[in-house]
Amino acid sequence: MTTETTKHEDDMSTVTPTRAPHSDVPSGHKDDGRVGAGLFDPKQLVKSLPDAIRKLDPRVMVKSPVMFVVLIGSVVTTVLALKDPGSWFGWVIAAWLWLTVVFANLAEAVAEGRGKAQADTLRKAKTDTVARRLNGDAEEQVPGTELRIGDLVVCEAGDIIPGDGDVVEGVASVDESAITGESAPVIRESGGDRSAVTGGTKVLSDRIVIKITTKPGETFIDRMINLVEGAARQKTPNEIALNILLASLTIVFLLAVVTLKPFALYSGADKQTSLIVLTALLVCLIPTTIGALLSAIGIAGMDRLVQRNVLAMSGRAVEAAGDVSTLLLDKTGTITLGNRQAAEFVPVRGTTEAEVADAAQLSSLADETPEGRSIVVLAKEKYGLRERHQGELVDAEWVPFTAQTRMSGVDVDGRKVRKGASGSVIAWVQERGGTVADDADTLSNAISQAGGTPLLVAVEDERGPRVLGVIHLKDVVKEGMRERFDELRRMGIKTVMITGDNPLTAKAIADEAGVDDFLAEATPE
Residue 2 has what pLDDT? Predict the structure, then answer.
């Protein structure tokens, strides 16, 4: 979804997509900076154990009546075991009761800890960024966290933008996928409504100077960290009702066990009904498993969403998801693969596909964007052209893709080959006195109406400058999406695709994917 935005709104929805900046590892994977996602991962258990011990505070335990009763029973049996140190039975019962309480707290601490680790990943991405701050005409490297409003920083191809700000000099292609999820790079330039940049995004080409516009702690990544850390586990209506039921059962069983002591005294079986035995009986009767895992289940549900880059602000949001009737889906990276890929080479009249494929491959060797690489692959796989590399063309003069020219190419063997946006290539041909084939515009329009992106291929040789053909870039729909949407439709869920593309492109993708409806020209806000 190709969109332009100058502001990031503060509105935070109940269930929000999120991702860790510049991480190619899926959330929940051990390489993404988080502790292992498994509930019984040893590292996670060790890290969460102190939190589980802290949760033994009676002021915390009283919030769960069932486990509070078990805690009291654990204390009572421990005291009785201390009075009779030789009673191995008392020590065993005390150990089991403490194990029950600690396990309940550990399950909750593990689930909470994985959510905290997500925020730690975001915080690490922010603190690791180094900024090249301008001090007069000189540059100095400082941590991104030390930047202040008004500071000027320099970013070149491959640099991570260290903070939110505005471009005051230059123009560059920026990868904002870490923030917006959109894989297609956007142009950011000084002046106008395309000058705003976000910390955590990556410069792909050229050089820009950025003026920092946000205070430390108020950047987009900071707000995302606050959002993750502020995800509180609120009890759902069903959970509240279940807690009331469990508390009621606990009271019933407590009364039942308490009455056993008078009966034992009356019948002369007092020794068989010691307080340790009665406490163990009570814990066996009350629903300790449900009480122990109830809160952990809710947190685990929220954490499973976090592992899939969705932040649930409360357990209520997770429960409400069961009543969903309409599903809103972003196009890029969700319905489609995310990277536009070359699908075919379309020649103009008087040119062959082989000529277009050869010129397209040559001119794309200097284009490091995903689109450029896909052109090289298509020429090799579909048209049988040997894959070439820049190093083997010794006398070649390469023209890398830049945000200003929006073209790439090469000058080699007495000819000049160019590939790029339609307007840029047409201007290049006309500047050299060449002509543009009449059907080039027709072919480009047809590709656009079909939901694709046209790129022109041109060459200047002994026959003069001219357009050879059109490259059809296509946003590829993920395999099996139509079947998934059919399944959702059978469940009674309506699917709506949201994209920043124009209505023609959006309709073509929506028809191919099989969604029920679509919303085009949407902005991130």
Answer: 34
Identify the pLDDT of residue 332: 78
| pLDDT range class, residue 124, cuts 50, 70, 90 | low
Q: Give the residue-averaged pLDDT of 43-70.
A: 78
Q: For the purposes of burial, counting CB atoms within 10 Å of the CB of 337, is it exposed (0-12), middle (13-18) or buried (19 or more)? A: middle
Q: Any idea what DSSP says for residue 70? A: H
Residues contacting residue 308 through CB under 8 Å, at least 6 positions apart: 27, 28
Residues 6 or more apart from 508 whose CB is under 8 A from it? Answer: 449, 450, 451, 452
| Residue of 519, 478, 516 whose CA lies nearest to 336 | 478
Instruction: Tell me the C-alpha distance between 304 and 39, whole Å.
Output: 11
Write down the pLDDT at residue 153: 93
- Chain centre distance of CA 12: 16
DSSP string covering 321-356: GGG--EEEEEIIIIIEEEEEEEEEEEEPTT--HHHH
Where do we find the tokens 């139509």? 482
pTM of the model: 0.44
> Which residue from 175, 143, 140, 136 is spatially nearest to 158, judged by alpha carbons?
175
Residue 197, helix vs strand vs coil: strand
CA dihedral 133, 135, 137, 139 (to 10 degrees): -40
Cα 33 to Cα 119, 168, 265: the distances in Å are 10, 34, 60
Residue the block writes with tokens 């395309």: 194
DSSP per-residue codes, 72-111: HHHHHHHHHHHHSTT-HHHHHHHHHHHHHHHHHHHHHHHH
Lowest mean pLDDT among 38-47, 86-95, 132-141, 508-517: 38-47
Give the span between the Cα atoms of 135 and 350, in whole angstroms: 57
Q: Which residues are catalytic?
A: 330
CB 475 within 8 A of CB 336: yes
DSSP per position, 371-418: HHHHHHHHHHHTT-PPP--GGG-TT-EEE---TTT-EEEEEETTEEEE
Other beta carbons within 10 angstroms of residue 138's beta carbon come to 7
Q: Copy the structure tokens of residue 504.
A: 């023609």
- Which are the contacts of 521, defined by CB distance < 8 A and separation ≥ 6? 500, 501, 502, 503, 506
